[in-house]
Amino acid sequence: MISMKRRSLYLSALITVLFFLQACGQSNLNTPLEDFEKGISRDNIQVLDVRTQGEYNSGHLKDAFLADWRNQQTFQDRIQYLDKNKPVYTYCLSGGRSQAAALWLKEHGFKEVHNLDGGILAWKNNNKPVERVQEVNQTTAAQFMKTLPAGETVLVDIGAVWCPPCKRMEPVLKDLQKENGNLFKLVEVNGGEQELLAKELKVESFPTFIVYKNGKEVWRKQGIVSKDELFAQVK
């Protein structure tokens, strides 16, 4: 007879082995550069850069979202706004961080995940195109406030092109402006470029929405906001 304690140890060891085999089986998430390039040329896919902000600014793939794998709180906060039913193509500098991120995505319900084998280093070494965040003249909060039309209700949308929840909010803002654009003026700020302005406006995450009336801030909220909630603030 096998004791209950020994049986429990056997079961624990079996679960560990099965998990290890599953993880090893998922290592084929690594995708050769040629196949990765073809994949990201398709419609309805998501490209995910899991490096730092500085690395992203130095050169990134077109239309890539950003979620730093080493900052797990930020990573998981941004990932929740990706579509689990659409393919995700991950990459980092050489492939290590993004392989770990790709495994995490699969384990958390993303149906199709591909990781760039060799990372963006391999991409650059094969003379593939990258985009860089352009340096722009920084605007101060005082300068910005002078540009807001006096006597009007202004909805300021502070986001970034690499921000998943910002992308999710685009159709919401489009519908709001189409239906009620006569009530307010929409001002969009690329906080990924205008870092000084975002800092001086005390923006902690993207997107952040601020409503000004007669030049005074009357409301702000960060993250996903419903159209009805925005309408209630600008009407």
Q: What's the arrangement of secondary structure elements?
A:
Elements: H1 4-25, E1 30-31, H2 33-40, E2 46-49, H3 53-58, E3 65-66, H4 72-79, E4 88-91, H5 96-107, E5 113-116, H6 119-125, H7 141-147, E6 153-159, H8 164-180, E7 185-190, H9 195-200, E8 208-213, E9 216-222, H10 227-234
Parallel strand pairs: 1-5, 2-3, 2-4, 4-5, 6-7
Antiparallel strand pairs: 6-8, 8-9
What do you see in this structure?
About 5% of the residues have low confidence. This protein is about 45% helix and about 20% strand. With about 240 residues, the chain is of the alpha/beta class. Helix 8 links the parallel strand 6 and strand 7. It has two domains: about 120 residues, 3-Layer(aba) Sandwich (Oxidized Rhodanese, domain 1); about 90 residues, Glutaredoxin (3-Layer(aba) Sandwich), CATH 3.40.30. It is elongated. The chain has ten helices and nine strands. The strands form two sheets. It has a five-stranded parallel β-sheet with strand order 1-5-4-2-3.
Secondary-structure class: alpha/beta
Mean pLDDT: 90
> What is the CA-atom radius of gyration, in angstroms?
22 Å
Number of helices: 10
Largest sheet: 5 strands, parallel
End-to-end distance: 75 Å
Return the string of H and E elements: HEHEHEHEHEHHEHEHEEH
Total count of domains: 2
Which strand order do you get reading across the main beta sheet? Answer: 1-5-4-2-3
CATH topology type of the largest domain: Oxidized Rhodanese, domain 1
Strand content: 15-25%
Low-confidence stretches: 11-26
What is the top-level CATH class of the largest domain? Alpha Beta
Tell me the overall shape: elongated
Q: Count the strands?
A: 9
Spell out the CATH superfamily of the largest domain.
Answer: Rhodanese-like domain
CATH architecture of the largest domain: 3-Layer(aba) Sandwich
- Quaternary organisation of the protein chains: single chain
Helical content stands at 40-55%
